[in-house]
């Protein structure tokens, strides 16, 4: 029997699950890394811990200090837990377009929540710039700066990639995921390529993001939009710089959502939309690499974080998205 000596020790070491439907459809083994099983419920607990511990080592955060961050929510949840465990305060700046569940969770965890209207990155009102200003104006505060602080991708180089390699016994042919900060994609890509240059790395980009065009044609260009939270990037963040990306796919919300609903209805996995987009990307990569290969992707967070949106028939209808049969109203 193993006893984890403290709660932050629960971060990482998540299981890999075989996704039956996607595997059967492609003749590949499609495996999902269960990041929803982290204590804060998402892939962002790992970078939250690495960013805070890196700052502590560099003397950037003193006892009783405050951690400030701009986030779509999940990094804020991870940081709030890390802050509580280490005796810091947390101030989380989040666009008011994100799910109510993430806002309620942040308040419940004790973070000071600052909601701001959605604004483009070029505007000083963008949540990232607002969080930087709040950090500057707060005494003894650390701005976590997840987009451009490479302690973020280091978390995935040192933990996620290593775990994937060990859990598959080195039998991994491909990896793909979408990008918010790029910490997961770049970190896992760099980490896996250190073990083997032969692993194919693919970007799965939602509509409305600019990275597909960048990796395909060298130009940052966005088209369309997505309701997926936590992903969709318009620039090359410091975390993305030098990421060894071999190929790229553009995945629609409809494709991602179809997998979210199928994985719940057929396999009992309740996931958020970025996970569905990742799974749709993993299927594209499986088709490229051919049958018999092993492809890993990230199951970023739980669908319980999106009950008011992805699992709400009125919201789905309003967005013109498919309603799963078990939520459709009886005639
Ligand atoms: N999915 C969800 C639900 C997220 O919150 C995030 C983080 N913003 C991501 C995917 C993307 O992760 P990363 O920041 O490592 O690119």
TrEMBL record:
Gene3D superfamilies: 3.40.50.1100. Keywords: Amino-acid biosynthesis, Pyridoxal phosphate, Transferase, Transit peptide. Pathway: Amino-acid biosynthesis. SUPFAM superfamilies: Tryptophan synthase beta subunit-like PLP-dependent enzymes. Signal peptide: none annotated. Its cofactor is pyridoxal 5'-phosphate. Residues 10-301 form the Tryptophan synthase beta chain-like PALP domain. This is Cysteine synthase A. One of its GO terms (biological process) is cysteine biosynthetic process from serine. PROSITE patterns: CYS_SYNTHASE (PS00901). Pfam families: PALP. GO terms for molecular function: transferase activity, transferring alkyl or aryl (other than methyl) groups. It comes from Parasphingopyxis marina.
């Amino acid at each position: 029997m193993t006893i984890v000596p403290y709660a932050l020790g629960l971060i990482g070491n998540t299981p890999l699950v075989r996704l039956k439907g996607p595997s059967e459809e492609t003749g590949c083994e499609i495996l999902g890394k269960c990041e929803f099983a982290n204590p804060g419920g998402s892939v962002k607990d790992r970078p939250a811990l690495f960013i805070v511990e890196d700052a502590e080592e560099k003397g950037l955060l003193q006892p009783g200090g405050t951690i400030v961050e701009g986030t779509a929510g999940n990094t804020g949840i991870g940081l709030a837990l890390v802050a509580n465990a280490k005796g810091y305060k947390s101030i989380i700046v989040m666009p008011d377009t994100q799910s109510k569940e993430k806002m309620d969770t942040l308040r419940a965890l004790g973070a000071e929540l600052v909601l701001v209207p959605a604004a483009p990155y070029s505007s000083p009102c963008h949540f990232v710039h607002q969080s930087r200003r709040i950090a500057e104006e707060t005494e003894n505060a650390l701005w976590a700066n997840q987009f451009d602080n490479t302690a973020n991708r280091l978390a995935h180089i040192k933990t996620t990639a290593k775990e994937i390699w060990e859990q598959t016994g080195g039998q991994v042919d491909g990896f793909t995921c979408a990008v918010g900060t790029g910490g997961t994609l770049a970190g896992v890509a760099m980490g896996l390529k250190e073990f083997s240059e032969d692993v194919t790395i693919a970007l799965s980009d939602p509509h409305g993001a600019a990275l597909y065009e960048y990796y395909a044609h060298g130009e940052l260009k966005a088209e369309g939009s997505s309701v997926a939270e936590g992903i969709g990037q318009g620039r090359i963040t410091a975390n993305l710089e030098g990421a060894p990306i071999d190929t790229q796919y553009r995945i629609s919300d409809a494709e991602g959502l179809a997998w979210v609903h199928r994985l719940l209805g057929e396999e009992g996995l309740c996931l958020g939309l970025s996970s569905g987009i990742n799974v749709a990307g993993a299927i594209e990569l499986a088709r490229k690499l051919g049958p018999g290969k092993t492809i890993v992707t990230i199951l970023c967070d739980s669908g319980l974080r999106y009950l008011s949106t992805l699992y709400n028939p009125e919201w789905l209808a309003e967005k013109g998205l498919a309603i799963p049969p078990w939520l459709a109203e009886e005639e």
